Automatic annotation (TrEMBL):
GO terms of molecular function: metal ion binding; prenyltransferase activity
PANTHER family reported for this sequence: FARNESYL DIPHOSPHATE SYNTHASE (PTHR43281)
Encoding gene (name): ispA
The protein's name in its UniProt record: Probable farnesyl diphosphate synthase
UniProt key word Magnesium: yes
Keyword annotations: Isoprene biosynthesis, Magnesium, Metal-binding, Transferase
Assigned protein family: Belongs to the FPP/GGPP synthase family.
SUPFAM superfamilies: Terpenoid synthases
Organism: Alsobacter metallidurans
């Protein structure tokens, strides 16, 4: 299964890369006036040529469970990846996490400038909704609305953006640093990181026309995988190197970031990471071998080294 998982992950990453490359071309679409060259270049820098593309992979494989493949899932996956990459470009800014390195190369605001990085992030997020709303993603307007609403909820006030605010508050950006308990850390991480990962599988279920039971199972899988992924990230920040991760390490503790490593200790955090990965796999018990790739994705999320 590991060999098949690696092959499917790689093939999906290549397909998503081609889709993003085409979407982020220089020619304006109908209704656009022009695409400024500097902004297009910044969006391409932030999006192309890096990353595991795990989020679009989860979306594509979840849709595949229901025999839905091709352009629609790839476009939805590309939209999700644009939303993810927007968040990275903004998180790296000096006003946020102030990082100089991302995926082994200078962060966007270092390669360009802060204003360009802000605008590139703004444009990527907006374009993500453009792609989801386009009938090329799915002919049924109700499906497109569901995809768009899901991404808005996962990425916005009660999801990723809200989680980032909770993270900044916990660091002490707006007064005394907040000592968060385990439950608060879990909520923060479910919003900041887990929401987009959970949306990935939910979007695949939407595209696949899944019934309520299958959607509930995939939602449980996505939430557990998202939580496991973030705990694994917290552990990598402690144990890995900048060369392995392609970004600075050891910054969470230095900034007083709220992590489960801090709340539980390293050994207990590792146990929780593994428990969550198993919970993700068990959530797929109602599916047969067609879901083995998604089961492998849960293991990959906690066994990865970057």
């Amino acid at each position: 299964m590991d060999a098949e998982f690696d092959a499917r992950l790689g093939a999906c990453a290549e397909a998503v890369e081609r889709t993003l490359d085409a979407l982020l071309g220089p020619e304006p679409l109908a209704g656009e006036i022009a695409r400024p060259e500097r902004l297009v270049a910044a969006m391409r820098y932030a999006t192309l040529g890096g990353g595991k593309r795990l989020r679009p992979f989860l979306l594509v494989e979840s849709a595949r469970l229901f025999d839905v493949e091709g352009e629609g899932p790839l476009r939805a996956g590309a939209a999700l990846e644009m939303a993810h990459c927007y968040s990275l470009a903004h998180d790296d800014l000096p006003a946020m996490d102030d990082d100089d390195l991302r995926r082994g190369r200078p962060t966007l605001h270092k390669a360009q400038d802060e204003a360009t990085a802000i605008l590139a992030g703004d444009a990527l997020l907006t374009y993500a909704f453009d792609v989801l709303a386009d009938e090329r993603t799915h002919p049924d307007p109700a499906v497109r609305i569901a995809l768009t609403l899901g991404l808005a909820r996962a990425g916005g006030l009660g999801g990723m953006a809200g989680g980032q605010m909770l993270d900044l508050q916990a660091e002490g950006r707006y007064g005394a640093a907040e000592a968060l308990g385990e439950g608060d850390v879990r909520r923060l991480q479910a919003m900041k990181t887990g929401a987009l990962l959970a949306y990935a599988v939910e979007a695949g279920a939407i595209l696949g026309g899944a019934d309520s039971d299958d959607r509930a199972a995939l939602s449980a899988y996505g939430r557990a995988l998202g939580a496991a992924f973030q705990v694994a990230d917290d552990i990598l920040d402690v144990e890995s190197s900048a060369d392995a991760l392609g970004k600075a390490t050891g910054k969470d503790a230095g900034r007083g970031k709220a992590t489960l490593v801090g709340a539980l200790g390293l050994a207990e955090a590792k146990a929780e990471r593994d428990r969550l990965a198993l919970a993700a796999e068990l959530a797929l018990a109602g599916f047969g071998p067609e879901a083995d790739v998604l089961r492998a994705a849960a293991r990959f999320s906690v066994e990865r080294r970057s």
